[in-house]
Amino acid sequence: MTVNDLKTRIFKDAVFDWGVDRVVSTAPLLSKSALLRQLVLQAGKFVSTFVRPPEVFPSLPPGVLADRADFGQAFIHTFERMLTCGLSEATLQKISRDLILGALVEGGQQSAISSFSEKFGTNPPSFLTISPGKTCNLHCKGCYASAGPSGEKLSWSTFDRIIDEAKTLWGVRFLVISGGEPLAYRSEGKDLLDAVEKHSDVYFLCYTNGTLIDDRTAERLASLGNITPAISVEGFRDKTDARRGAGVFDKILAAMERLRHAGVVFGISLTATRHNVDEILSDEFVDFFFEQQGALYAWLFHYMPIGRSYTLDLMPTTEQRLWMWKRSWEIIHKRKIFLADFWNHATLSYGCIAGGRTRGGGYLYIDWNGAVSPCVFVPYSPVNINETYAKGGTLNDVWSNPFFADIRGWQEGYVQRKGNWLAPCINRDHHDVLCQLIAKHEPEPMDESARQALLDPDYTRGLGHYGELYEDLSEPIWQEHYLKDR
C-alpha cells in the first residue's frame, strides 16, 4: 500500500465512522422529521459505498465487494423503514446504539477484544447462539432440535454466566437465542426476557414460533428495546400449518399485529425445502410479509437433514439452491430488502462462520444441556459448558478445544486457496472434511438422530454427493461472477 493509498484509506474510514455515528445518534429525531431523515440517509447511502472490508481481509474478490455494497444499501433502506414504522423509543435507541453502532460498526466491546487478541493472537468470535431450553409448545415436522414437551434446559445461573463471559471475554454485543421455543424458557424464577433486561448492553435476536407473543409480551418487548423476534413461517397458511400445526399461521399473524401495535422490530425466519422454495421467494410472499405485515428482515435457512426424522428428501435440490442464490440477490438488489440466506450469502460473512471463527466474525452454539458445537447445523459436541465451569474453566477454554481449532484451520486454508464461498458449509458442502474431523476428535452426537446419521452410510454418501453436485454447479459462477474484475 502506497502512502497515498494509506491516506485515502484513513480518510474513508474517518468519513465512514463519522457518517454512521451521525445516523445512529440522531435516530430518534430522524423518526420525526422527514426532511432531516432524507438528508441524513442520503449521506448514509453515499458513505456506505466505501464498504470497507475488515482489515483481516485486505483484498476481497470484486464480486464479494459488489454483494456487500448491495446488502449495505438494503440495510440502509431497512433502517429507513424502521424510522417510519412507529417503533417504540426504547427500540429505536437500542437498535441504533447496541446493534448498529456497538455490534456492527465497532464490532463489539473493544477492550475485551484487545485482551483476547493479546492472549490468543487473534480476534474472538463475534457472537454466540444459545438455546437455553428445549421445551416447545409445538411439534413441527423435521424440527432440527427435536423440540417438544421436554424439561431439558440450562439453569438460569449458567445461562446468565455465559452471556456475562461472552461480553467480558469476547466483547460480544449481539447474541442469537434459539430453542425449543425461547419464550417458553423458565429457570430459577426467570425467563428469557429477564436475561434481555439484565443485559441491556447486548442486542438479542430471538427465533420464535410466535404463538406465545400475547399483548403483555409484546409490550414488554417494546419497553426493553434490545430484542427482536424472528418468527418462523414455512410459506403461506397451507404450508405453515402443514408443518407447524393447524391454526399456527393465524396465530403468527395475530402476533405480528401485536408487535406492530407495540412498536417492536420483528422479522421472519424461513426454512427452505424442495417443496416451498418457489413460494417463500415469490413476489406475493415478499409483498405480504414485508409490505402488509411489517416484517423488517428475513433469515433464510435451507432444510438441513438433522434432528427429528431427518431426511435428505426435504433438502432443496442443487438446482433449486442455485436458483435461490440468484433470486435472493435479485430481491436484495431491486427491492432493497434485508434478506439473509445462511448458505447462499457466505460472500457477506467471508465463508463458513462455524467453530468460533475469528477472521471476519464467527460463532459457537450452546444447547439446553450445555453441549457446545461448531454450529447449529453441525450437531456434534466435543465439550460441555457445564463441565467446563465445574472444572473452573471459561468460554475461552471452550473456544480453544482442538475440534473447533481444526475447523478454524480448515476454514483458513479454504480462504487461502480462494475456495468457493458459494459452497462454504463444512457439513452440507464438505461432508467428507467433517467426517474426517469427527473421526479424529470423536465429539459426542448431540441427540440420537445425530448418532444415527453417523452410522448411516446412505446419509454420508447422500450428503457427499450433494456437495459434489453443487460444487460443479456453483464453481463456474464463483470464478466468473466473483473472482474476475468487472
| Share of helix, binned | 40-55%
Please report the distance between the alpha carbons of the first and last residues. Answer: 22 Å
Please report which band the strand proportion falls in: under 5%, 5-15%, 15-25%, 25-35%, 35-45% or over 45%: 5-15%
- How are strands sequenced across the largest beta sheet? 9-8-7-6-5-2-1-10-11-13
The largest pleated sheet is described as: 10 strands, mixed
Core attributes:
21 helices, two-stranded antiparallel ribbon, 486 residues, 11% strand, globular
What does this structure look like?
It is built from 21 helices and 14 strands. The chain is α/β, with parallel strands linked by helices and 486 residues long. The strands form three sheets. The chain has a ten-stranded mixed beta sheet with strand order 9-8-7-6-5-2-1-10-11-13. Helix 1 (3-25) runs antiparallel to helix 5 (89-105), helix 3 packs antiparallel against helix 4 and helix 18 (402-416) packs antiparallel against helix 19 (431-441).
